[in-house]
Every structure is written in C-alpha cells, then in structure tokens.
Design a protein that fits this description.
The chain is about 35% helix and about 15% strand. The protein is of the alpha/beta class. It has two domains: about 170 residues, Rossmann fold; about 180 residues, Rossmann fold (3-Layer(aba) Sandwich). The strands form three sheets. The protein has a six-stranded parallel β-sheet. A six-stranded parallel β-sheet has the order 9-8-7-13-14-15, sandwiched between helices. Helix 13 links the parallel strand 14 and strand 15. The chain is elongated, with a radius of gyration of 23 Å.
Length: about 400
Amino acid sequence: MTLKTIRDFDPKGKRILLRVDFNVPTDDAGNIQDDSRITKALPTINYLLEKGGRLIIMSHLGRPDGKVVENLRLNMVATHLSQLLNKPVKKMNECIGAEVEKEVSIMQDGEIIMLENTRFYPGEETNNVEFTKQLAKLGEVFVNDGFGVSHRAHASAFGVGTILPAYSGLLVEKEVTALEPLITNPNQPFTVIVGGAKIKDKIPLIEQFIPKAQHILIGGGLANTFLAAQGKQVGQSLYEQDKLDLARSILEKAMTPDQIILPTDVITATEISNTAATQTVSVDAVSSTSKILDIGPDTIDKFKSIIADSQTILWNGPLGLTEFAPFQNGTRAAAQAVSEIHSTCFSVIGGGDTSEVLKTLGFPDSSFGHVSTGGGASLEFLSGKKLPGIEVLYR
C-alpha cells in the first residue's frame, strides 16, 4: 500500500478539511509559548492555499473533556496563524452547525476558516457517527497533517477520513518516511536510547527493536526498574515494583549479552532540588536512603562510545530527572554525542518530552536527523501498532 499525499489530488476549488495538531503550550493569559506545532504545519497549509484550496482547519487544544472551556478556545491560535501567513484566518465559534455551513458555502479559493476546538464536542473523542458526518459535510477532501493525534480514532483525525477521500499532509508524510525505515530496515549499527520514567510505556518499543538494534541503552527511572530486577539496591528511587518480572523477561530476550546496556554507575541524592548534594556511586553501592536521579560518568562514556559508532539512532525519553540542573548531565552528554555525528548518522528523536527536554538543554531540532512531532503517536508507531489516522491515508 502507498501513502496518499496532497500531491495526489488537485486542491483548486475544493473545500479541504485539514486536521492539524495545534495543541500548543499557552500561559495563563492564553498566550502561545511555543509555536513549533503551528510552524511545522505551514508547508502543507501554504501548498494547499497556493494551489487554490479552500482550507477548513480542525484542531484541539488542551483537555476540555467534551465541554466548552473559554480559555481553550482557538482564537489566539487563529490570530497567530494569520500573522504567520500574513493572511486572514476566519475563526468560527463552533465546529458544526448552520453558521459554520453558511461560512463554508461562501468560501473562495485560497481562503481559510478555523473551526473551534474539536474537543468541545463529546462526539470527537468517541468518534460519534453523527458528529463525524456533520464535520465531513463541510468538506470535499480530508487531509491529515496532525501526526501527534493520529494514534487516536477520533472523529476529526480518523472518522472524517472514512467518509471523504483522505490524504496525508507533508508533515505526516515526513514522519512516516522518517520512522518507517527504523522498523523495516535500519542502517547498522543501530542504537536505541530509551529513558523516561515508566517501563510499561516503553516495553513494546524495546521488544520491537530487540531483533533489530545492535544496542539498547537504558536510563532514566526506567533503568531503576531493570536494576531492581537484577537484584540491585535502588534505595528510595522511583521504580515499578510490580514490573520486575517483566523487566527480567525483557533482559532474557536480549540477542547478545551486551545488547541491552544498563547504567554501571549513577548520580544519587537524598533530596530533589537544583542545589541538591549529589554522589556518584556504582550501581552496587546505592545507599538505602538515596535516590538514583541520573546516569554516572562511566555510563556516559560507555553510551557515548556506542553512539559514536552508530549509523542509526532512535531516542525516546530523558536519561535523568532533567527538570533539575544536577541531574541533566547524562541527557546533555548523550545529546551532544548524537549531535556530533549528525552528518554521518541518521538520528530520530521520539517526540513529546524528549524533544522538549533537548530543546531546553540547548539542542535545537537541527541537531538531529528527525524530531518527531508525536509523543504517544511516534511511540505507538515505532512499537509496531497501526495508527488509525495514518491507516486511513493508504490506498
């Protein structure tokens, strides 16, 4: 099957329902703090407008749970998009209904309407048939450029695509093109870096890549569970006691003794703060009162050596508690190592917290081969799951 893209139809004169992921972070006053989710959709928007399409943009913002929440309206998003495009964006106060249908019916080529927050409607997240039909009747073609919501079988990201001819936007196409080869045929040596807190979120990802990766480097709170599964003392560290058997089973699946690399030394502290007193200790010498909060220098050197020899890298999850300065070194060092081989190694950053952390630590998206715009979506895609919002785009 081939992914259908916006290059596969003529947009001129067509009403195009475009699903984007403009769920941008805002402050208490509703001001946009990071517009990267908007700017990354601009190539698709500009393409469709330049070709004479009539754009009807759909997005959600926050978690209104099917109710109207005034500070989650998309007014600021529409205003910001208008400024970026230097073009009017007519913002509607609803997603469906007579007023919306009237405005859509009088659209001209190259004009833009933005519908209200799709999650103001209970039918959005349940993919309600009637709500989906009401949305679909607004357009003649459906385009999905919201990779970050494509793992949800929601009305605006999936349901509409089962009614209208469905195509991927340029951002979704870019995501699929970057991520799919990691599953099918990654260039070797292939290294997977996995961090973050919870093991259950990452198990499908690790299992997917045990047959494919030469090395899987594990850090973050995730590593604590694996260390505990090996019988190590982890003191007061965050770990999942009910997942120890699962961690042991993963370690047993390793193809070689050094495929799954766990920390050999760690940074510990008895308090979590920006001024915490830290200790560097072997994983065999963690005290009962300490918390493991980052990987240690020997582990960093080991990780850096493996990274330097890699041709392909996939990274999902920070390697320490990066919200606090004393525990950022492991993640920063790994990021520096990955960025240094940018010209010879294809690196993929798995979206969500990982990309935000790396940006905060001073590594822009240009430091890596591909930075995914989907947190949960990229994790599920790379774990081998079918994403409803993507599957509907194949022919």
